[in-house]
Amino acid sequence: MDVQPTTPKSVNLMKKIIWGVLIALGIIVVLYILAVIYSSFRGSSVSTSNYYGETGMESGFAQEVGLGTTASLGDMFSAPKLMRDEAVTPPTAPIPTAPIDQKIIKNGSLDITVDEVEQIVSKITNETSALSGFVQNSSVTEGRNGQKYASLVIRVPVKNFDTAISRIKGMAKVVNREDVNGREVTEEYVDLQASLTHNLAVEAQYLELLKRAQKVEEIIAVREKLDQVQAEIESLKGRMRYLDNQTEMSTISISITSEIKITLPADKWQPWEIVKEAVKKLIVSMQNFVNFIIVLAFGLIALIPYLILILIVFLIAKLIYKKYKKPAKNL
User: Fold this and answer.
1) Tag placement on the chain: N or C end, fewer CB within 10 Å?
2) What is the per-residue DSSP string for 194-230?
């Protein structure tokens, strides 16, 4: 069977057919993409319109919660990342806040020496109550030499701090050490208040979004972000409460020591009791010595078999050494 040669006309025809097929496929793909985009856009518009009742309400809600006129709730839930990171924005207008007084954490410590520790502890407790304060910690101990020690931590209002220090020093016989220090936290408190205001505004927006959400994925997405904001709010409030407490009530730590007293001998001297105690200790020491001798003797007896075994091994080794040493000398 003969193969006919390909003519230039047939080659051009084949190229035209191939290009026509490629162009037709490209047109079909473009039309398909446009149809998908159109159906998706129409479905989104219908669902959003049904959700809010009308398109104008959606735009009004976006402006109401501070999302801007170009962002919609439907767009937010179709793009969770945009909702989490960009959609909810706090109000940019400054929120007026009440002026904050200067906040200073004031602490002090005293180390004093007194005559009667219990009496001074009672006086300090009474003075603390009189100054609208309270005793936070208190302990009293006594050493072997009869010297007594006490440790107290009291809290008094800042306005009464200097008065409390002065009165406690007046009770002391000797003031061994006095430390007073203050730390200003006004700037930190202002920053905390600004952060709290910011997070409260964001929380209000997410609460509004949670009311409008209907789909499970929408509720979960908003709830997750809302929990994070509320946790941050509680943390800020806790820190502010701590600073309020520390700046309203000052802390004073007090170490109290009694003077060393020289104790006189007992009224009744009992030498016979001392002799009996000395004899008792002597007998006990002799008993311990005899016990040691007994234990040592039985220990040595227990070692006899081992000593015999070591002696036998030594004698055998010595005989072997002599036996091999004599031939060596003969050589």
Assistant:
1) N
2) HHHHHHHHHHHHHHHHHHH--SHHHHHHHHHHHHHHH
